[in-house]
Amino acid sequence: MAQRILVILGHPALNSLCAGMATAYAEGAQAAGAEVRRLDLGSLHFDPVLHAGHYGEQPLEPDLQQAQADIRWAEHLVWVYPIWWGAMPALLKGFIDRVLLPGYAFKYRQGSSLWDKLLAGRSAELLVTMDSPPWYFRFMTRMPGHHQMKKAILEFCGIRPVTVHSFGPVRTADAQRLQAWVERARALGARHGGRVPAEVSTAS
Q1: Where in this chain does the record put each Flavodoxin-like fold domain (predicted)?
Q2: Which residue among 4, 28, 48, 58 has the highest number of C-beta atoms inside a 10 angstrom radius?
């Protein structure tokens, strides 16, 4: 059976480097025989604000209902997004707030601080661009955005392993280097689409 991969573009702009990398990853995975679906968050219609937190009801818009179905369908989730101010864009954070809800992504046990991880059985890959050099993000700012996404969000919901690939600095990269990153994304897609695990990295 083909690997089921969901590619999620977390950059609001559909003409961004991240968009190109998401397309390349999807193409590489499909060429390797995977079934691929894609979510471009900039094209979805939803309120990114969880107005009452987890203490009130906020009906899911149709696009978010479909997003939950796509996540359920997927065996491997690929998140492609930039680092802005040390973490993910507000659009992506709002999407996560609205979609990874109690009862869907996790569930606290009655009278306990423990929880059930309802999205277990899936893996994830993060393709993350940044204007700072990856070494600076790792050693100077201690990778807050990577830890948030990997440990506080995905692994909290049972998604593991989570592989992180960092690309930067974007601001000073020439066209040849940008294209190399796009081709790197294509190779990663082909690798995972063919069920060969990509190497684990937090600052590659």
Answers
A1: 4-187
A2: 28
Q: Using one digit for the tens of pLDDT, what is the confidence trace for 18-48?
A: 999 999 999 999 999 999 999 999 999 999 9
- 3, 35 in Cβ contact below 8 A? yes
Beta bridge partner(s), residue 128 = 81, 166
Structure tokens at 103: 């009862």
Listed in sequence order, the DSSP H helices in the chain are: 17-31, 62-73, 90-99, 134-139, 144-147, 175-193
Alpha carbons 160 and 145: distance in angstroms, whole number: 17
Question: Is 0.90 surpassed by the pTM of this model?
Answer: yes
- Residues 6 or more apart from 179 whose CB is under 8 A from it? none
The class (CATH top level) of 4-193 is: alpha beta
Cβ atoms within 10 A of the Cβ of 177, count?
Answer: 12
79 close to 149: Cβ distance less than 8 angstroms: yes
Annotated domain spans of the chain: 4-193
